[in-house]
Amino acid sequence: MEFSSKLLENAVYEVSQLPGIGKRTALRLVLHLLKQPEQQTYHLANALVKLKDEINFCKNCHNISDTETCEICANPKRDSSIICVVEDVRDVMAIENTSQFQGHYHVLGGKISPMEGVGPQDLTIPALVTKVKGGGVKELIFALSASMEGDTTNFYIYKQLEGLQVATSTIARGIAVGDELEYADEVTLGRSILHRVPFESSLKSN
Amino acid sequence: MEFSSKLLENAVYEVSQLPGIGKRTALRLVLHLLKQPEQQTYHLANALVKLKDEINFCKNCHNISDTETCEICANPKRDSSIICVVEDVRDVMAIENTSQFQGHYHVLGGKISPMEGVGPQDLTIPALVTKVKGGGVKELIFALSASMEGDTTNFYIYKQLEGLQVATSTIARGIAVGDELEYADEVTLGRSILHRVPFESSLKSN
Q1: Position B128 in a domain
Q2: Is the same domain home to B91 and B131?
């Protein structure tokens, strides 16, 4: 692409560095901003810089939070002895939306991925291990994505906790509610048969 | 969506104001920026604000340009008596890529659209009419999109130029090179038959 302006080219380049946004989409977004009142561009730029500069993570669960301790960790009604291990803030939001979990979270900030150069020390795994060793934690629920990296991360944490008095579980994998069996992939269907649930307990969850 | 941080919520809100970007995508983009070195966020914010603050339009064709007169208008080899009327800088870039046009452009900055409250005065139509009235323009080529708004804009400019010695044309609509007839829509196929080209002249353009 040949641009008629270096300023335009630079803005398009920076926007196209975002994931899933190519040069064409970036140009469309930049031209849209140019047509809008200048306040919109200032607000966008400010919001991004302010977030980056003033971002704070809960000292307990490492979720993004404006306060030293996030609302979930600060809530006395929630059970701090059950900790759900998730990858990032999106997973916390998704699980909170279900209203089915009343424990605490631990946000890892990613998954172990040798391909992308992410090791255990780049995540908040040491803090999690320290927390469990400190006592008071009865169960860890692994809620990472069912991928090679997710499984590796689960297993790494599991090994770190060997010998400690803490139960570990992973969220159930199976056919989504409302899905047809014939369209399910083999691995998921296989797991849903392997980890079948007593009929009585499936009645309770409805 | 319930966010654990006002800063995060604000950044997601501002990003989701961009066209075609919903809240989920905005959150993904913002979390991506958070994982990157802070320089990337600063560069992005700077590039957008700088473009908005220092944006300059060519005084002749109204295309985005870093100089008072853009490279195309300043090029003495280009024919200033033929003006191609386009909507925005993307159309200029697309036509320049074909290397088939050696005239000047006139960038309208949009199309007349009563639905979106865009009238002739919001575009650079008055400047175009003044330019043609000033003399020296032999032909205007309308290259707006073939939509209700594009046709309205073409017709409005055409009426404004009544009585002036200037030829007007629109770019050819027809079956794209390489396309199969059976998949073409009726309007396009109809136009391609109505505006058929003498076979000898089609040979020259190959």
Answers
A1: yes
A2: yes
- A91 in the same domain as A42: no
Note whether A47 and A17 are same-domain residues: yes
Which of these, A11, A113, A51, A22, lies nearest to B31 by C-alpha position? Answer: A51
**Chain A with chain B: Cβ pairs closer than 8 A:** 175
Taking an 8 Å cut-off on Cβ atoms, the answer to whether B56 and A90 are in contact is no
Record: contact A41-B49, CB cut-off 8 A = yes
Give B54-91 pLDDT, tens digit per residue.
999 999 999 999 999 999 999 999 999 999 999 999 99
Is the CB of B64 less than 8 angstroms away from the CB of A5?
yes
With a CB cutoff of 8 Å and minimum separation 6, the contacts of B103 are B78, B79, B80, B81, B82, B83, B84, B139, B141
| Domain at B159, CATH number | 3.40.1360.10
Per the structure, the complete domain to which residue A33 belongs is given by 6-54
Return d(Cα B175, Cα A35) in angstroms, integer.
33
Q: Which residues are registered as beta bridge partners of A105? A: A84
Q: Quick check: B94 contacting A, CB < 8 Å?
A: no
In a domain, A92, yes or no: yes
Contact A99, A107 (CB under 8 A): no
Closest CB to A30: pick one of B7, B51, B96.
Answer: B51
What are B100-158's pLDDT values in tens digits? 899 999 999 999 999 989 999 999 999 999 999 998 999 999 999 888 999 999 999 99
B197 found inside a domain:
no
pLDDT of residue A169: 92
Q: Are residues A134 and A49 in the same domain?
A: no
Contact B109, B62 (CB under 8 A): yes
Instruction: Identify whether B41 is part of a domain.
Output: yes
Banded model confidence at residue B200, pLDDT cuts 50, 70, 90: confident
Whether residues B78 and B21 fall in one domain: no
A179 contact B CB<8A: no
Q: Is pLDDT above 70 for A185?
A: yes
Domains: count for chain A: 2
Cβ of A118 under 8 Å from any chain B Cβ? no
Q: Given CB atoms, is A5 within the 8 Å cutoff of chain B? A: yes
